[in-house]
């Protein structure tokens, strides 16, 4: 399939950007579509449209905002297979996984369609008989939403749906590698009936230039970004001059800890679910597997056997578990991490090489005897490689797991309730999976990290907070 979408969506109209840029299928390298290539001037038009639309949208009754969001949800679900096909073609993940992502994305819209009607204020008791204290929650204003390539549907709706529910207007800039999914979602939002200027789309091959407008223009009052820590820090600095609200969901380096009393088979399947989903290209995926030394040999062999059943190939091919990496840069990084680990003493149990003669495929890989001096121990690999480290005590592995500037997700397996309590309270991460490799599946839960993994939370009732101002009113009367 080839998609030619050479228009930007600004102020309710699809307008030409004057040029386009190609989108490539990472499984084949073939061009699967074109997207409009916006300049800074187009970003300024989008900001103006959103700024103009905000006063009316922010005062639109919550039930009406809810109804529009619900209609958008229905349209996404009606077109789920079509969107999933686009997603697989431009990003590479297996089609069943892509369908799951589209459903996940739609459920964010459904959730915030419901939450739009539950944005409450407070009446606070006063210490004076002739005063009344009221607290209002009001939309923050124009929102810039900058989304990544690894979840082209879910990251759009997880940001845009709560913003719209809160009464904010939005400018969406999707990743240049995967704009086609976002374009289709915006087309369906237009069909749903959102007013002109409320939801705007700017695609570009020049993210730094366009992003500079979206983070520095004083009319933009909120920036929400998912991506690398390096880029997140840059956007944070750019937004600082106008004191914008900023939500950042950044990189991770998740530990996966398997204690001696864990059910080994369940832990092995947990690593498979966490590490190899989306070819390891998720911010919360396992990066370091810590296994108690008493069970390390058995665990390593069971993991090797389980990984040997995983099929690598194009996402539209039936039976494929692991699709391609997004591009050559990503593939080279994975290859570099594996080579470095092997040079420093790791043992290759399975995989370890590029796969096929075309596309950006890497074999599902397990490395044993990993150590802290390896790149893979400190850098986020973002690929299908599981390095196994061993440990002796709870105190030791806790210190090693926390010895990182990142703090997004962590996992551990044990049947000791005391250890569960100690670990969940002392791991320095925003998301903890206890005998659970997929804690982010619940849209009602808060998603986000600590330390250099980000600011604020997305999902659930917590996801609205970043898009709402709190206004305190004190009324005195005679």
Automatic annotation (TrEMBL):
Pfam families with a match to the protein in the record: Aldedh
GO biological process: gamma-aminobutyric acid catabolic process
Keywords: Oxidoreductase
Annotated Aldehyde dehydrogenase domain residues: 14-473
Gene Ontology terms for molecular function: succinate-semialdehyde dehydrogenase (NAD+) activity
Enzyme kind, highest EC tier: oxidoreductase
InterPro entries tied to this protein: Ald_DH/histidinol_DH, Ald_DH_C, Ald_DH_CS_CYS, Ald_DH_N, Aldehyde_DH_dom, Aldehyde_DH_Superfamily, Succ_semiAld_DH
Entry EC no(s): 1.2.1.16
Family indicated by similarity: Belongs to the aldehyde dehydrogenase family.
Identification of the protein by name: Succinate-semialdehyde dehydrogenase (NADP(+))
Native source organism of the sequence: Tumebacillus algifaecis
